[in-house]
Structures are given as structure tokens and as C-alpha cells.
Amino acid sequence: MPSNIVKKYYRSNTLPHIWCHGCGNGIVTRCIVKAIDALGLDKNDVCVVSGIGCSSRASGYLDFNTLHTTHGRALAFATGVKLANPKLHVIVITGDGDSSAIGGNHLIHACRRNIDITTIVFNNNIYGMTGGQYSPTTPTGEKGTTAPYGNIDPNFDLCSLAKAAGASYVARGTAYGAVQLQKLIENGLKNKGFSFIEAITACPTYYGRKNKKGSVVNMMELVRDSAVVNNAWEKLSDEQKQGKFIVGEFYNEPRPEYTEQYDKIIAQYRKEGGL
Amino acid sequence: MTIKLMQGNEACVEGALRAGMRFYAGYPITPSTEIAEIASVELPKYGGKFIQMEDEISGMAAAIGASLTGIKSMTATSGPGFSLKQENLGFAIIGEIPCVVVNVQRGGPSTGLPTAPSQGDIMQARWGTHGDHSIIALYPNSVREIYDTTIRAFNLAEKYRTPVILLLDEIIGHMREKIEIPDDSEIEIINRKKPTCSPKEYKAYKVKDGDMVPEMAPFGSGYRFHVTGLVHGETGFPAGSDKSESLLNRLIRKIEDNVDDICTYDEYMLEDADTAIVSFGCTSRSAIAAIKNLRKEGYKIGMFRPITIWPSPEKKLIELSKKVNRIVVVEMNAGQYFLEVDRIAGKNTQVEKYGRLNGEIITPDEIISVIKEGHNA
């Protein structure tokens, strides 16, 4: 039997989803929905915009105003939706390749504008939909179908990128730590500005097989064991930090939000009798 | 009625505002930049929104996103930017999102001749985005006609739920002319159809019997629906290849079956003509001057000027091909619309092309020479 969360927020006629067994995307999607539920947002006021890739298929399963766009462009479409109707709670679902390779430019400028959009990047370190090519977040040395001898690209730290570009809320969680991830998304939704949440998830089918990471359970345990909370990180030696990442809230500094700034211009320059 | 001296690009924004545009997203590019600049000044006065995006791709995307909230939106660009907009232009076609895309043409390919005119994007307007589709592209030739045609572009976008391309060129975009601003009684404004059923019954891409355009609810209105660039069924959710044929055929037919409603054109001195020039935009202005002079010398010549470039006015071109013994397609490119005119009219009459690629307008004298050279008295 579907849970109350599924009944209330999922489009049951579009399920089952397309994701592979052991994929973390379902957990991350559920965290988003539970965060929306915890904040009591009206479904009619929520707009979920996604790009292209495995994670971006989530928009079709969710019973909100949903927009499944072109590869990398979710934030550009979302910017139009939000600016045109600032009353909508706009959430962007995207992947590591979608947001930081083909959509990298849109990401840094959405951060810079501090437009009130909450972006959740499902980071599985690989292009899953196309069958396992290396992405900007594939760790150096790891393999993909287009990095058969090991990836020589340095990988992106997406949270550092978002913070440097101007996002007013930046956090990282994992599909393993679902309770924490839901809380981080809630806080992101509460922030009036651009919120960036990186959700580390696992792709057993492509990333896992190509890099011999073991079973689905092994991969989930790897996510668990690689995630280090903020205050524990400092106590690790450089050697211990290898292959690990910090989780938690990195930045939460509200600053003027884009659509509110634009509304001030309208308030000042609107003609009498204007629409 | 108000009389104003106005630039073509300015008339485009004024027409757009009159049509109800309340959102503009774009990126600076010569020779269309005035459209963005004027939109940024004017939109807040109407409670509308302007945003300068990080690139051309996102300008198109944001215009589509805004339209989904029920607001009329526009973006403007020139050749290099038009190339970049093609990706999301296709999204607007398959997702049936009304919006207007202005392309103030300049010389290409690539950076080409940034400040010089061209009519080199006629075929890109038709086939720029990938996959099978139909498209509406309009091309006025005066400042007043830019005003009216921009309104019409919005009307057609709303009526047929499709992106409409408004082609201008560097000359008519930057040209200043006296224009009469029409009164409200002279202007028709069309708005997209909204659903009459309840949100529960709403299927975002279901068409009623005898109609080919689905009703469109805005995001945030209680009608929760899904929009995707994937092939989809009438619910809007991704569907298999079995739905592809019916969807794409409907998207093509909603335009092609309404050619008579969509197509507008201008016939100039064609009543007794044995020779016709086919021309549009800036070049048609030279053609008019050439025709006036040739008429003085006794030539029976006129012009057929499509204002709707795509879909092409096929019936009118067939009619013309049966009436004249020579058609010369004069355009500032290597012969793009010539291909379409020759396809339609070539079996009935002689169709020739005359064009140039150096960024300088084709002069009336040149057209006169071309007509005289090929003339069999």
C-alpha cells in the first residue's frame, strides 16, 4: 500500500518510476516531498522544474505544477517562472551533469541573482541516463564509459561553487542520511533567496559496476561512511579526508532577493492605471 | 490616433506592450539590443518584468517559463543568438507554449557582419530547431507594419499555442519612420483559451472535438499539470512512440490547416503584371522604388510580398505563377526563399533569384537592371 505521503503528493498514474534498483533518487525525491509536507506548502503553489537526466524524471511523478525542460536549462526556465509569478515556491531538481556541466552557466548566475529558487542536485557522480559517462563530479581517477583509463579531470566541489557564486543557502546531505537531508531541504525552502542543496546519491548500475563498488548495500554504506559532519571534518588528517566529504549546512546568510528587488522597481515606476 | 517618429525596434516593443507583453528575457546582441533596452525601461511601468539573462539560451527558456504562468512573453536576438535559441524554440513547439521570438537579421554565418543587414535566416526560421515541425514566421517591412505585425505575432502565438518568430532585419529594425499609432478600436487582441472544466477533469493536451489547440491553464491556478519536451499523450506525461505520430501531426496540422487564417501578404501593382518580384523586409522597399520607375518605362511589373513567410502563402503563389511569365525572388541571401517559391511556382512559370551577401542593401537600380536584363519584350 502506498504511504500517505505517496498518496498525497505523487501522481500514482505515472508510477512506477524508471529508476534502477538501488538508485538513491527515490529517497532524495521523497525527502523533497516530506520537506514540502513539513512546511505545509499548498500543492497549487509549488512548481517543480527539472532538466534532463535520471533525477530530472522526478518532476513527472510529483503532483505539483511541473516542468520537465531541456538538458541543463531547468534553472533558466525556473527563473522565468519565479520572476513572472513570485508567489510560487519554485524547486529545481537536477543532476550533477545537468547542473554543473551543460547547465553550469545558469547555475552560477541563478546563485548570483539570489533568486528565490531551491535547487536540489542529485549527485551520483555519473551520467546515468546515457549509460555511465564521467561527469564534472566523477572523482579524479575513477572510471566511466568515456573515461576507460580513469578520469583525469579534477572534480567539482559543487557547494563551494554555489557559495562562491552567491547562493544565500548552501548545504549537502546524502540519500543515506534521509532525515538530515529532509531538514536541509526544509531550511532551503525557508530561505528567501537562492538555496543550493547537494544530495549525494548512489548509482549502482553504472558508477558502481564500472568502479567495482560492490552491491547496492555496499554503495549505500560507502555513502554513509564517506559523509562526515561539519565539526568532525576538522579533526581528520589530510589522509583521512581522502574520498570523504562534509555534510551539513555550509552557509545561510540571507541577502536581498531578486524578485523582491524587481518588485521595488515596479512599485517606484509603475504608471497610474498600469496592469 | 497618435502620430510618432519611431525606430523599427522601438515599434516592436510598443506593439508588444500593446499586445499585452508583460515579460521579456534576453541577452544583448546587435542589431536587436534596442528591443531589450526599451523593454527594460517600459515593462516596469506596466507592472511587467524584464530580465537580462546570462545567455541567449536562458533568454528563450525564461520567456517560456514566464508564459507558463499565464503571462505574454517575448525575447529578441539576432543571427548568432537565434542559433542558440533553437533548442528551447523546439521545446516551446512540442510543449505548445505561446511566446514571440524576434530575430533582427544580420550577416552570417557565425559572427558574420554584426552591424550589417541580411536576410540569411529565412530557412533557419523554418528549420532551425531539430525534428519535424511547422512554424509561424512573420516579416514586416515598415515601422508601422512592425508595430502591427508584433501584435499579430502575439495573437497567433496565443491562438495556436506556439512560438511565433518575428523576422526583422538591421535596416528596418534601425530605420525611423513616422507612424500612426492605431486606436483601440482598430486593434484585435487575442488571449489563449483557458480551461472551462474543473482542475480534476483537466488534461493539459486534450483537444476538444473540431479543435486542434488545447486549452491552457497557468501554473499556480490550481490546475496542476506536467509539461515536458518528451513526446507525450493528452495528459502531458511522457508516452511511447505510439503517441509520437498523432502528436506531431497535430502540431503540424494546427498551423498548416490554418494557413488562410495565418497568412498575410501584400500585392503591389500586380493587376496587369506579366513580371512579379517576390520580396520582403528591407529589400521590398527597394523593390517598390524599382517597380515605380520600371512602370514609367512601360514595364508591366508588380510585387508579391509575403508578410507571413512561414507557412508560405502557397495558394497565392500558385495563383501568381499562372498569371505572370516571370518571377524574380529578390532577397539578401544566396537564394533561400527562392527555393520555396520555385518549389511552388516553378512548374507554371520561370522563377529566378537575385541576392547578395555583402551586407549592403539591394538598390532599386540593381533591381531595375536585373529585370531589364532578363526581360523578353
Tell me, what is the CATH class of chain A? Alpha Beta
Assembly type: heterodimer
Helical residues, percent of chain A? 40-55%
CATH second-level architecture of the largest domain in chain B: 3-Layer(aba) Sandwich
Textual characterization of the structure:
The complex is a heterodimer of chains A (275) and B (377). Chain A has helices at residues 4-9, 25-39, 58-61, 74-84, 96-100, 104-113, 158-165, 178-190, 204-210, 216-226, 230-233, 238-241, 258-269, and strands at 46-50, 65-68, 89-95, 117-123, 126-127, 133-134, 169-174, 195-200, 227-229, 245-252. In chain A, strand 1, helix 3 and strand 2 form a beta-alpha-beta unit. In chain A, helix 2 crosses helix 8. The model of chain A has no long low-confidence stretch (mean pLDDT 96). In chain A, the strands form 2 sheets. Chain A has an 8-stranded mixed beta sheet, sandwiched between helices. Chain A has a two-stranded antiparallel sheet with strand order 5-6. Chain A has one domain: Rossmann fold. In chain A, 40% of the residues lie in helices and 18% in strands. Chain A has 275 residues and is of the alpha/beta class. In chain B, the strands form 3 sheets. In chain B, strands 2, 3, 4, 5, 6, 7, 8 and 14 form an 8-stranded mixed beta sheet that branches. A 5-stranded mixed beta sheet of chain B has the order 11-13-12-15-16, sandwiched between helices. Chain B is α/β, with parallel strands linked by helices and 377 residues long. Chain B is built from 13 helices and 16 strands. In chain B, helix 1 (8-19) runs parallel beside helix 6, helix 3 runs parallel beside helix 4 and helix 10 packs across helix 13. Chain B folds into 2 domains: 2-186, Rossmann fold, CATH 3.40.50.970; 265-373, Rossmann fold, CATH 3.40.50.
